[in-house]
Amino acid sequence: DTGVSQDPRHKITKRGQNVTFRCDPISEHNRLYWYRQTLGQGPEFLTYFQNEAQLEKSRLLSDRFSAERPKGSFSTLEIQRTEQGDSAMYLCASSSLTSTETQYFGPGTRLLVL
Amino acid sequence: QKEVEQNSGPLSVPEGAIASLNCTYSDRVSQSFFWYRQYSGKSPELIMSIYSNGDKEDGRFTAQLNKASQYVSLLIRDSQPSDSATYLCAVRYSGAGSYQLTFGKGTKLSVIP
Fold first, then answer.
1. A52: distance to nearest CA of chain B, Å?
2. DSSP of chain A, one letter per residue?
3. Inter-chain contact B4–A89, Cβ cutoff 8 Å?
4. Of the candidates A55, A100, A105, which has its C-beta nearest B43's C-beta?
């Protein structure tokens, strides 16, 4: 068990471009979460999946953001028409249905929008 | 608006001392409480979880929960320079189908050798 993995670890893009991030949860973890963290702040919840179903979305998740978990395993988070305000660390976490919802975080993807 | 409040610090303690980190939360109907440690540029790492009133100890770490006062704390005994990091308090609020965590802004701890 290698923990939660995320790819890429770093992404630099120009304003207006689309970016996609991938998250692979801990194997057999049914729940997968996306958070965003900016400097000096705690992580902010974006969205959550149980298996392939997206069950909860934050109001922070604008129309430019979309997340999928098509087979209930890995997940992708896409940001369309990136803006400088999207620059942040994007964190993925997973938890098991059988645990007391303890969430384990991946290493994150650091996005810089120029 | 559910809120989690932490003193941003920095909190400086000498090596070997006890570091005390505090957190308050706004929603009385909260179920689960977590402390994460985050080194600069890294992702949060789970330190402790606590679900019922009282103390929970794990090695040098003790989490304390007082639901009546809506207060949760983390004590680090025999602080080491390697404990220098930002400590994030996270709360899971009760609610049908809601599993998101609400985080505080974190307290930066510096352990001075």
1. 15
2. ----EEE-SEEEE-TT--EEEEEEPSTT--EEEEEEE-TTS--EEEEEEETTEEEEE-TT--TTEEEE-TTSS-EEEEE-S--GGG-EEEEEEEE-TTTT---EE---EEEEE-
3. no
4. A105
- Model pLDDT for residues B5-62, shown as the tens digit of each residue: 998 889 999 999 999 999 999 887 778 999 999 999 999 999 999 999 999 999 999 9
Chain B: which residues have CB within 8 Å of chain A? Answer: 4, 8, 32, 34, 36, 42-46, 49, 51, 88, 90, 92, 97-106
* Paired residues of B4 in beta bridges: B25
Q: How far apart, in Å, are the Cα atoms of B14 and each of A40, B18, B37? A: 24, 9, 19
Across chain B, mean pLDDT equals 92
Contact B100 A45 (CB under 8 A): yes
Nearest to B88 among A42, A48, A58 (CB): A42
